[in-house]
Amino acid sequence: MNTRPYSRAERYGHELQKLLGELISRELDTSSIGFVTVTDVKMTNDLKIAKVYVSAINSGQPSDQVIQFFDSRAKYLRGLMGSQLTSKSVPELRFYYDNSEEEAEKIERLFMKLHSEKVEE
């Protein structure tokens, strides 16, 4: 019987999220793409692939360029992770842009606009 609140892949993903956040802020110069946050890491069940979701604040760069930035540095980050992890293998890193913050902001602006129009009536 599984008494843990979430799976091994979820726990490992959460640990990788913290580690990657630290490594990115300490080891990479992200000034060209803005302030970067690792928003989530989803692991495959076999723990071989990590889907890393990142967002960039004040970027001025399109999301595909942010992902290209990380894709070109994936091997370097993976090497850094290898020296920090105690697991047998280091997962392959696949980067995805998380635009949920931007979408939430857009929805909030729509609500504000709707509210201001309703008040004017």
Q: In summary, what is this structure?
A:
50% of the residues lie in helices and 20% in strands. The protein is α+β, with helices and mostly antiparallel strands. The protein has one domain (8-120): K homology (KH) domain (GMP Synthetase, Chain A, domain 3), CATH 3.30.300.20.
Question: What can you tell me about this protein's structure?
Answer:
The chain is an alpha+beta fold and 121 residues long. It has one domain: K homology (KH) domain (GMP Synthetase, Chain A, domain 3). Helices cover 50% and strands 20% of the residues. The chain contains 4 helices and 3 strands, in the order αββααβα. The protein has helices at residues 8-27, 63-71, 74-84, 100-120; strands spanning 35-43, 49-57, 92-97. The chain has a 3-stranded mixed β-sheet. The protein is globular, with a radius of gyration of 18 Å. The model has no long low-confidence stretch (mean pLDDT 87).
Envelope shape: globular
- Low-confidence spans: pLDDT under 50, at least 5 residues? none
The sequence of SSEs as H and E is HEEHHEH
At the fold tier of CATH, the topology name is GMP Synthetase, Chain A, domain 3
List the helices and strands and how they pair.
Layout (H helix, E strand, L loop, with lengths): L7 H20 L7 E9 L5 E9 L5 H9 L2 H11 L7 E6 L2 H21 L1
Parallel strand pairs: 2-3
Antiparallel strand pairs: 1-2
Which terms summarize this structure?
GMP Synthetase, Chain A, domain 3; 121 residues; alpha+beta
